[in-house]
Please model this.
Amino acid sequence: YSNVNYEKEILAPLKVELIVAHCKSEEEVIRICKDADVLLICYAPITKKVINSLTKCRGMIRYGVGVDNIDVEAATARGILVINVPHYGAENEVSDHALALLLCGVRNILFLHQKVRQGVWDYRVARPIFRIRGSTLGLVGLGNIGKMLARKVGVLDIKVIAYDPYRKREEFEREKVEKVSLEDLLQRSDYVSIHVPLNQGTHHLIGEKELRIMKRTAVLINTARGPVVDNQALHLALRNKWIKSACLDVVENEPLSKDDPLLELDNVIITPHSAFYSEESCATLQKIGAEEASRLLRGHLPVSIVNKEAVANFLSRFPLAKRDNNFESY
Model:
């Protein structure tokens, strides 16, 4: 972030030392955070080695929803709470970004723009482009972001189907979305948009097998987590025209190297993990993160605990921790 003014303001009454650092390696995190009471984290690697080096950490707050850069199991074993910020309003930004990528991919916007810059004024170089109205969008994951995208594409007269084994049928019916299997979704969808967290069950959920059964005219959109898609298989699919194109805000290894094979292709659009971003969403994210840190430092349990099974161990380490009204939900 450009500054940590929100964090300074919220934590100022506690008279704590706020250390700001950009850590990219385990060694950097250990050197700077070893004696910290609370960690506020964005992309730093919080591995088992890091966690076992922490001498008095109460909890670690991840700016955002995903916690895939934190070894949650190791934190739980130490009685360290892992907290995320799932409700900072970024479902607006991410669903907007997914829709923007979808439209760019379907209408070949970036490809045509590049051709114009090269002196080519001819729409035919982008053939074929098909009408959006009456097409089918397949959502892999029907959480808050998936639901919001489904509502937005409704005005474009796009039929929405979704795969999410963790959602009840009533949720699908409420959103007017057809519940389908993953295989059915991949076979029927003109556009496939991914909205699932990264975990053992979703790692490489979309691989060579899945890409091969998609329509040759399909567009794949990923604004979730890069490793949900096997990037080597995706490169193969794009190069061999198994699918039309891919529009990605996330990739398997970030940041993307300059010599990544995906960058050699003209049927892929990549943005730098920016779908969550707006000035408003980042301000809310920083404020909520700092408020959770304040709760921990004041001896309160935070609101959004990822590893609820660590609470008992945490309370044994910090027996004076106050149980807020929402504690019973843990």
